[in-house]
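cron nightly-structures :: item 1 of 1
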Amino acid sequence: MKTLIISSDEKTVCKLNQYVSNLNISSEIISLFVDIENINPFYVLNTIKTKKDISQFNLIILSDAEKDQELAGLIVGNYGFSSITSFSNLVKNDEGLLVQREAYGGLAYMNLKAKSFPLVLTCTSSVFTDIPVNDISIEKISKFETDRKIVVTSVKKISKAVDIGSAKKIVAIGRGLAKKEDLSLIESLTSSLKAEIGCSRPLSEDYNWLPLERQVGLTGETVRPQLYLAVGISGQVQHLAGMRDSKVVVAINNNKNAPIFDSCDYGILGDLYEVVPLLHEKLGAFV
């Protein structure tokens, strides 16, 4: 089986190469880093075509990053290949190659048997997050065949005020907070922890207390911080789907039956208006 790995991020290419190597499913692995910045994905694919016969590969694997997903879609559309998106693991057994995908917000998994090749796959970042970046041989494409009649004269980047998806520490607040003015209480705690503020869906979509870019869950951001402190969050499945890959989860809730206590490493049963100030005070002594 031959595998082609493509990504717009060089570290991702290296990590995916190591991931596939560890699986022992491929006799040949070609890793391709496409250094694209403000390049139409059509041009990217056309350039790759001049360098690689994509149809000769059994597996074409990309990440679920935005640029990679666009390129994956173009490959499927141009070649008519089969595809499976957002896989979380690959398993080779006596039945062949099984592609594992999450279902119901990560509460269950689907095992899909790969029958049609070439197969285009995109994977979630959880597949390679913990894989170290090793020195491997990768190919780099930085010059692309473009339509010279089209000239980009200027580019305007619209960036988020905060990228909560890359935060190492997150203090997430839910409906346990009584009023918007009390956000200052949470801000003091995040300052002590040097963390970002996150929230559940009601606080961003219903109450408009925080911007949507801070919402964690199925309809918000998926985060994987080292520390996730859930304050006044009950722990509905929609929210858990967005933070369940956190390294350490600490929950503060005054309801002993709150589902969040079934999904945390440490739980504090108590009123957030009493617990948060105490945490801030104790943490302040170490800052």
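cron nightly-structures :: done
Residues 5 and 31 are 5 Å apart (CA to CA).
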